[in-house]
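Q: How would the structure tokens look for this protein?
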Amino acid sequence: MPKTFIFLIIGLFFGTGAGFLLAASTGAQVEGHAHEDAVHDHSAHDHGDGADPHATLTEAESPAPELSIAFHPDGAQSRNLEIIVENFTFDPEAVNGDHVPGHGHAHVYVDGVKIARAYAPWFHLSALPVGEHEIRVTLNANDHTQLAVGGEPLEVTETLVIE
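A: Here is the predicted structure in token form.
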């Protein structure tokens, strides 16, 4: 019986190898398994009407929200981002719903790349590389459109230096 088991293992090993060689030589691919687009492309999301809501502005009603940010140390290369708002309520339960004046969430960008939504006034920025980083925070309605005041996007950008 031990010989039979050894021959089974050897057969599986060489059979699997031969299968991979055959697939590679014929250019076979597993359907839906392309590796070249493994990076997440947010533009592929469908938000209903085909338009990108992140590029659309929604005028904030009075009293207009106000936004500022502050950084608080949390280790050598990490910071706690404080999102300071007035006349605005973080409303995670209503995300993806209809616009409710004065309610929504924030989008956090590091060096021009959106890294997350923030549903509360505190967000952790972890393990940032040494150097200067542009941190941008936008206030967004429940439907993800960016809030605006007088036609100007409601956002703040600050430079954060990690030494």
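The longest strand covers residues 131-140.

The CA atoms of residues 95 and 144 lie 8 Å apart.

Upvote if useful.
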